[in-house]
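Reference record
================
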Amino acid sequence: MELNLGSNIFKKIGVEKIVSIGLFGNKIGMTQVFDKEGLAIPVTVIRVGPCLVTQIKTTTTDGYNAVQIGYSQVPLRKLTKPQLGHLKKAGAPPLKYLGEYNLENVSEFNVGQALTVDNFNIGQLVNISGTSIGKGFSGNPKRHNFKRGPMTHGSKNHRAPGSIGPGTTPGRVFPGKKMPGQHGAKKTTISKLEILGIDAEQNLLIVKGSVPGKPGNLLNIIPSN
C-alpha cells in the first residue's frame, strides 16, 4: 500500500490547540523519516478519526462530566436496535466503536461535533493503547524470556519449566507464577510518544516509535499529561 503523505506533513498547524480528549484511529504501518542530521527515525503512521461526539454527560444528568465519541461507520445490520437508537438520538450514523472520556469541563464540546487530527500539535506527547499481537500458547523461554536448560547428552530439560515451587512449605504454587500460557493479544499502552507529523487532508498522524498491534489495529490516542 502506497502512502501519499504530502509535502505539508511536517508543517505546524496554525492554531495552537491541545485537546484533553482521546481519539480513535487505525494503525497503517511503520516507515522511517530523516531528521536534519540525516538520522533515520522509525515512525508509525496512524489514520485518526474523524470521530463524532455522540453524547455529553454532566454532573446534573449523569453525576459526572464526560464526553462520548464514536468511530468507524458500519452498515445498520452490524449494530443492535438499542445501539442504533442511541446513535439516532445524537443524529450520528451507525458507528462501531464508542469511547468515553472523563473531563472537568465539557462546555467546549457539542453533540455531533467532528474531532480530527487538527486537534493535535506537532511535538505533542500522546499515550497510545491497543491490542498487542497475539502469539498463541507459548512456553516460558518465549513468554517470559527464561533461559533454556543444558543441551548436552542425557539432559531432558531443554525448554521445560522445571520445579515450580517447594513441596513441603508452603506446599502450593503462589498466584502469579510465571508459567506457559497465552502470549500477547492483550491491551497494551505505549506512553509519551512524540507526534512528528500531521497530514490533515488524509487524517494521518505520524508518531515516533512503534505502537501495539498489526496494521489495521484499532488504537486509542490520548494526550499525555
Summary: DSSP finds two helices and twelve strands in the chain. The helical segments are 81-89, 140-143. Residues 1-49+117-137+183-225 form a domain with the Elongation Factor Tu (Ef-tu); domain 3 fold (CATH 2.40.30.10).
